[in-house]
């Protein structure tokens, strides 16, 4: 795919990189909101010492409670690119990532297909959702240990935990690092590092979870967004 896109500062970026970044946004949105939504329910007693397995179960259980997500985001990369936009997720299987102008990108996942749209060039590309990182976090059940993810680094302290995961079948495609504080359990930072070593940090703004989302959001040919 030869589609090229421009970042918020006018820096050129290959369309595939924007897909990876958008997928990072979606994956991290699910993680962040799942943890944040229930942080208030975690009592100070949660500060007891956990094993790594207990930590992963603790986090995994929270991730599986969130069904829908809507949030604005700010995306900053280590190469100086940045962008804003809005993300919508409806588990299982549906996602929409809209970048604010001047970035002309739109990404929609539905019916097992991920569609990448470049409005500026009038081009779109299709890839199987199963071939993308979003497939794991859009699945009916999210599994950190015995699913398609592999934890390659885990660290815990009195103040929280940090874990890094890769896809089992393609670890060279990049990694995702999540940093939590605890108690109460709260996601503070998330970073995606791609195969080229470029890191992207995502910050969510005004998130809303578990509210009904209209099905038209997950149609790439929605006339409101042409």
Features:
eleven-stranded antiparallel beta sheet; two-stranded antiparallel sheet; outer membrane lipoprotein receptor (LolB), chain A; single chain; about 20% helix; disordered N terminus; about 230 residues; alpha+beta; 13 strands
Description:
The chain is α+β, with helices and mostly antiparallel strands and 226 residues long. It contains 3 helices and 13 strands. The protein has helices at 15-38, 52-63, 134-137; strands at residues 4-6, 12-14, 68-77, 82-90, 94-99, 105-110, 113-118, 123-128, 149-157, 160-167, 174-181, 186-194, 199-209. The strands form 2 sheets. The protein has an 11-stranded antiparallel beta sheet with strand order 8-7-6-5-4-3-13-12-11-10-9, covered by helices on one side. A two-stranded antiparallel ribbon has the order 1-2. A hairpin with a 6-residue loop joins strand 10 (160-167) and strand 11. It is globular and about 55 Å long. Mean pLDDT is 76; it is low at 1-14 and 34-47.
Structural class label = alpha+beta
Output the radius of gyration: 17 Å
CATH superfamily: Lipoprotein localisation LolA/LolB/LppX
Q: What spatial order of strands do you see in the largest sheet?
A: 8-7-6-5-4-3-13-12-11-10-9
Approximately what portion of the residues adopt beta-strand conformation?
Answer: 35-45%
From the N-terminal CA to the C-terminal CA, the straight-line distance is 21 Å
């Amino acid at each position: 795919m030869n589609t090229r896109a421009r970042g918020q500062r006018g820096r050129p970026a290959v369309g595939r990189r924007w897909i990876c970044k958008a997928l990072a946004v979606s994956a991290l949105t699910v993680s962040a909101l799942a943890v944040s939504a229930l942080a208030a329910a975690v009592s100070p007693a949660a500060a007891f010492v956990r094993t790594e397995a207990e930590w992963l179960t603790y986090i995994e259980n929270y991730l599986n409670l969130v069904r829908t997500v809507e949030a604005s985001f700010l995306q900053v990369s280590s190469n100086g690119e940045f962008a804003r936009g809005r993300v919508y997720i409806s588990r299982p299987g549906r996602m929409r990532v809209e970048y604010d102008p001047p970035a002309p990108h739109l990404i929609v996942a539905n019916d097992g297909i991920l569609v990448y749209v470049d409005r500026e060039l009038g081009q779109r590309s299709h890839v199987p959702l199963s071939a993308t990182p979003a497939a794991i976090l859009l699945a009916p059940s999210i599994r950190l240990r015995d699913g398609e993810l592999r934890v390659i680094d885990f660290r815990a302290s009195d103040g929280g935990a940090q874990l890094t995961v890769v896809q089992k079948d393609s670890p060279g495609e990049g990694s995702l690092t999540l940093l939590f504080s605890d108690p109460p359990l709260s996601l503070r930072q998330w970073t995606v590092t791609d195969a080229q070593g470029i890191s992207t940090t995502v910050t969510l703004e005004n998130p809303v979870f578990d509210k009904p989302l209209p099905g038209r959001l997950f149609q790439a040919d929605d006339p409101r967004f042409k």
